[in-house]
Amino acid sequence: MTEKNKEKIKFSAEISKILQLMIHSLYTNRDIFLRELISNASDACDKLRYEAVTHPELMQGDSGFKIAITVDKEKRTVTVSDNGIGMNHDELIANLGTIAKSGTQEFLSKLTGDGKRDMPLIGQFGVGFYSSFMVADKVSVISTKAGSDKSWQWESDGTGEFTVTAAEKSARGTNVTLHLKSGEDEYLDTFRLRHIITTYSDHISFPITISDGTGEPQTVNTAAALWMRPKADITPEQYKEFYHHVAHAPDEPWLTLHYKAEGKTEYTCLLFIPSVKPFDLFHPDRKRRVKLYVRRVFITEENVDLVPHYMRFLRGVIDSEDLPLNISRETLQHNPQLAKIKEAVVKRVLSELKKKGEADEESYMIFWNRFGAVLKEGLCEAASPREPLLEVCRFYSTAGEGATTLDAYIGRMKEAQQNIFYLTGDRIEALRASPQLEGFAKKGIEVLLLSDHVDDFWTNVVHDYKGKQFKSVTRADIDLSTISGEEKPEEKSETKTENDAQVVELCQRIKTILGDNIKDVRATSKLTSSAVCLAVEEGAMDFRLERFLVEQKQIASASAKILEINPQHAIIRSLASKLPDASAAKDIEDVAWLLLDQARIVEGEEIADPAAFTRRLQGFVEKSLAA
After folding, report:
1. Around Cβ 217, how many Cβ atoms within 10 Å?
2. What is each CA distance from 489 to 104, 438, 494, 525, in whole angstroms?
3. CA–CA separation, 617 vs 612, rounded Å?
């Protein structure tokens, strides 16, 4: 092709940033470029093998998948070839010129701008194809899409742009040729390359051959699906490298789960739980990343209900012996065998989590702090096994600084206590200081402190656990007098004034003053040091859930709350004593509004009239200072 026939295209800004970092910085473990290229080649073979199930003509004349490494010492090149799906003109531009993989974007988000500090990230993330420029000053890619009669060549020196030209017809698949930089002669040594392959890519299920042009290509890897090999034959290092391959993640797995299920439904699982959060864990799409194989043939990892959304942190493969090879992705959504596999996998994962939590609580909390909020999403789903899910959950509570299980909570419940009490909010520290807890603390009644957003939802659909009812401490019908508990002598009330005539009259007076801004005013035994708090009726939405639905415009406005007053508090007693005094009417009215606004502030509710609140508060401060 002449120079004028070459199509020149600039790299995207993100790719240019990565390339500059790789080209101009020194990195000690450059070996990972080969791992990344082999991984890409393996993915290409997987994709074609799936497509060929329904379109066998795509593999005509070349039915055996393979990955070949070829070294040319004279030209100082290393070529990684595959006979997979291949790429056409547009795919070459899209896949090699822009951000094509989520891992690359995650890599970019970690960069600091300091080259020496950033370079180790390359060894972790690899960032796929672009790692080639760590060892090459020019990379050439020739690719032929399966079923196409055209070939295309992509080429770049990594300095800002690449070219795409038509190429002479080549075999199906992709050849990536690296023109090595000066000083990178070690990668012309086939023994060195064999070592890299066995270290990082032995798990690849396609044969990887290597040749220097002087003899027959030799197969380097075992070329057997790792998950089909006996567990006793797999080393921890092999498991770890397979995790890196299948998860496109840099960390080590927190848990590895490898087993074969036999019976009416036969399948093999090799699943991993990461030790760090995947970057897209809370993306609205909630994508699941477990790959489905049927008798070693890759089918899909997207849009298939293989594991539930609340276990989307899982990575790995599930290989079925029973599903038909020609199954369509649409049919998968309603396949009863797949539903059985999903149910069994969920049961097994929860069982393993329970064992892990019982054996090593400290390690389990690493998992829980990263993925607990996601796992609790399952409590909102009617079809999920809620009791086994709750058994592996951990919750912070008023009993101490650490987390607790529900079984441990039940074991500490007071006599005659039938409810598992909880309080939801934004931060654990703020929850511990809530006035809602005062009466419970006084009696030594433990309360769960729930600060994840999902807690507002599952507590509205899960009503009990092992016979004990969940109950928010913000409910207005809680009577703590029925629950026995040790009170400190100085905290014991000498008189019970809930039914005192003055308190009843005060409640009615405050209700009249506040009108429709409040649903009711009631005395409560929940408070000890605070004068008032807000509460909701049994069956009504809790504060934070209602606030969320208002923000999302799911409901028009917040409902009126119940104002609960503490009959023992000095402010309440003083107000009650002033009821007969007509001259105190204005002060009673102002204090009633101040108490409501105070209660709203504590619960994160909006003050209806901030200017009036400020004016009333300022007036009382002035009176206090003048007294």
Report:
1. 16
2. 63, 16, 10, 16
3. 9
How is the beta sheet containing 419-424 ordered, strand by strand? 400-404, 395-397, 448-450, 419-424, 468-472, 464-465
Cα distance between residue 352 and residue 511, in whole Å? 54
Q: Mind giving me the DSSP string for 60-108?
A: TT--S--EEEEEETTTTEEEEEE-SS---HHHHHHHHHS--SHHHHHHH
Cβ contacts of residue 409 below 8 Å, gap of 6+? 395, 397, 399, 420, 446, 448
| Paired sense of beta strands 267-274 and 289-294, if any | unpaired
Q: SS3 letters for 551-617?
A: HCCCCCCCCCEEEEECCCCHHHHHHHHCCCCHHHHHHHHHHHHHHHHHHHHHCCCCCCCHHHHHHHH
Q: Which one-letter amino acid corresponds to residue 18?
A: I
**What residues does 395 pair with on adjacent strands?**
404
Neighbours of 231 (CB within 10 A): 12
Which DSSP string do the residues of 339-369 spell out, in sequence order?
HHHHHHHHHHHHHHHHHHHHH-HHHHHHHHH
Q: 408: part of which helix (H) or strand (E)?
A: helix 406-411
Closest listed residue to residue 396, CA positions, set 455, 471, 448: 448
Tokens 């379109």: give the residue: 55
Helix (H, G, I), strand (E, B), or coil: what is residue 378? helix
Pairwise CA distance, residues 619 & 612, whole Å:
11
CB count, 10 Å around CB of 482? 9
Max intra-chain CA distance, the chain: 110
φ, ψ of residue 245 to 5 degrees: the values are -70, -50
Given the structure tokens 């998860």, which residue do they identify? 247
Give the C-alpha distances (Å, rounded to integers) separating 98 from 44, 95, 107, 161, 226: 18, 6, 14, 11, 32
For the sheet with 561-565, list strands across it. 518-523, 561-565, 532-535
Write out the two tokens for 480: 């703590």
Q: Cβ of 617: how many Cβ atoms within 10 Å?
A: 15
Smallest CA-to-CA distance from 514 within 615, 621, 619, 598 is with 598
- Non-local (6+) Cβ contacts of 618 within 8 A are none
The residues facing 269 across adjacent strands are: 259, 318
pLDDT along the chain (627 residues), means of 10: 72 75 61 87 90 88 91 96 94 75 54 55 58 91 94 91 90 96 94 90 89 90 86 92 86 95 92 91 88 81 84 94 70 81 96 97 96 96 94 96 96 93 93 94 95 94 95 90 63 49 92 94 92 90 87 86 93 92 92 94 88 91 83
Helix (H, G, I), strand (E, B) or coil at 111: coil
pLDDT for residue 213: 81
What backbone torsions phi and psi does residue 423 show, to the nearest 5 degrees?
Answer: -140, 130
SS (H, E, C) 526-548: CCCCCCEEEEECCCCCCHHHHHH
